[in-house]
Amino acid sequence: MTDTKKVVPRKGVDKNTIWKAVYAVSLIAVCFGFYWATTQTNYIWRWNRIPQYFYYVDTVKVTAQIEGEVASISHKGGESVVIVEGGGTSEFYTVPGSNILVDKGDTLYMGDTIGTYQEGKMGMLMHGLLITVEVSFVSIILGILLGLFTGLARVSQNPFLKWSAITYIELIRGTPLLVQIIMWYFVLGTIINNLLALSGLPQVPSLWFGVASLAIFAGAYVAEIVRAGIQSIHRGQMEAARSLGMTKSKAMVKIILPQAFKRILPPLAGQFISLIKDSSLLGVIAIPELTKATREAVTTSLMPYELWFVCALMYLVITFTLSMFVQYLEKRTAEA
């Protein structure tokens, strides 16, 4: 009787593990290579100065607006009140805290410092980030509404609605966004504000011309996405709804659009992510969004590497958050 030995298969190294290790090594090599390249240019990294571009504490001076004499100094509720009299008039100045630099009876001239206090202020990058988020959010909402109605008009049987939608879509998609922003601000904006000035009405800030240009630009692409989503639903869905007595508009709202919405979520997410990045072009019309704020910070600080890295990271956080939100919506709609 011959002995039979059980053959145990040899466990090899998982190929996925190897490629993950290759990826990690490559990423480390790229980062190290970039760092080494910066050392060859004698660049000095100043990461410790980055937080002041998000939040900083400023020393605010309270100065005299008239010439006169300090009549009295009183303290009330953590504030100091200084009364200055001169030229037959008197003014009082409130200084938070108790850092008063004058005494009763001192003679003050216009512009002299009465006291100082510390005040926390928002940094340039944080201010630019908030404007970018605000502009992008409003533009996305308006772009969705405009794109939805334009997409429905694009598939309409009404020649006026259909050809109007086609004209709008082709005109916007066929011209660069930068040109549209400039035209909105320097051409349409000038005309609108001149008409408002002649009517005695307040003028429209440049921020809203930037929002309008982004919303109209996004609306054209959203319209094509909506059109493709509607046309991807089989015609039998509409015919079945009509046979049940539904009107065409009701069938579109109740049957077609809910199914199309699930299919158009991914391309909509891509379009909105692009819109957030395209908002960086609004700096050409003096809107202090994130890119313009970073450019101004680089000019004053001479820290291009650190600030542009932080700027890119902030855009990545915004777009990644939006991408995660859209994925959450996809899961919810898939479960419904």
Task: Describe this protein's structure.
The protein is built from 9 helices and 6 strands; from the N terminus they run H-E-E-E-E-E-E-H-H-H-H-H-H-H-H. The strands form 2 sheets. It has a 4-stranded antiparallel sheet, with no helix packed on it. The chain has a two-stranded antiparallel ribbon with strand order 1-6. Strand 3 and strand 4 form a beta hairpin. The protein has 336 residues and is an alpha+beta fold. The protein has 3 domains: 30 residues; 64 residues, RNA polymerase II/Efflux pump adaptor protein, barrel-sandwich hybrid domain (OB fold (Dihydrolipoamide Acetyltransferase, E2P)), CATH 2.40.50.100; 212 residues, MetI-like fold (Orthogonal Bundle), CATH 1.10.3720.10. Helices cover 61% and strands 14% of the residues. The longest helix has 32 residues. Its main location: membrane. It is found in: Cell inner membrane; Cell membrane. Belongs to the binding-protein-dependent transport system permease family. HisMQ subfamily. It holds the Pfam family BPD_transp_1.
**In CATH, what is the class of the largest domain?**
Mainly Alpha
- Which segments are poorly predicted (pLDDT under 50) over 5 or more consecutive residues? none
How many angstroms separate the termini? 65 Å
Structural class: alpha+beta
Strand order of the largest sheet: 4-3-2-5
Extended strand count: 6
SSE blueprint and pairings:
Elements: H1 15-40, E1 55-63, E2 68-76, E3 79-86, E4 89-96, E5 107-108, E6 113-122, H2 124-154, H3 159-173, H4 177-198, H5 206-231, H6 235-243, H7 248-278, H8 290-301, H9 304-335
Antiparallel strand pairs: 1-6, 2-3, 2-5, 3-4
Helix pairs in contact: 2-3, 2-5, 2-8, 3-5, 4-5, 5-7, 6-7, 7-9, 8-9
